[in-house]
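Researcher: Excuse me, tokens okay?
***
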Amino acid sequence: MRKILSLFSSVTLCLIVLFLSTVNASAHSASGIPGHHNNISNSSVIPYAGNSYNGQQPDTSGCWDSSAYIVKSATGTYNGNPVLIYLWYSPTCGTNWGDFQITNHVTFNLSAQVTRNSDYLTESDYFTGWRVWSTMVYAPTTTAYACGFVIYHTSNFDGQAYELCVSQ
């Protein structure tokens, strides 16, 4: 129950951050502004993939290829350690994922999550180390946001000590 309440609190906080920040109406701007991806036709996305990419790892699925890029990033500090969250996008697969790092490589219990704004589908992953990335959400025509967390209570990742989010 604690884990569910903690996750609910984290998602709620990310939603508040998302709605309080300036968010573009569309993730796919034809303007070509750095940090935003351009319109992507379905023909540029791997055929028959679609929502089957939800929950898949970006590195083992082929989505984290040379065409993948950082949509937006944010920096912060946790206990004197610099932290960074990236929101990635893969035009090959039409997917987003979060990539959370302790940039001086200090080891913590970490979690990264990504949420698709159209239906709030959230994917996440946990790791003890200095870097973790979330599994992906398929989002070729909608915006997404990513959050990174430093977590305590190692056995079940049920407590949150720090959170950093970034939205499109």
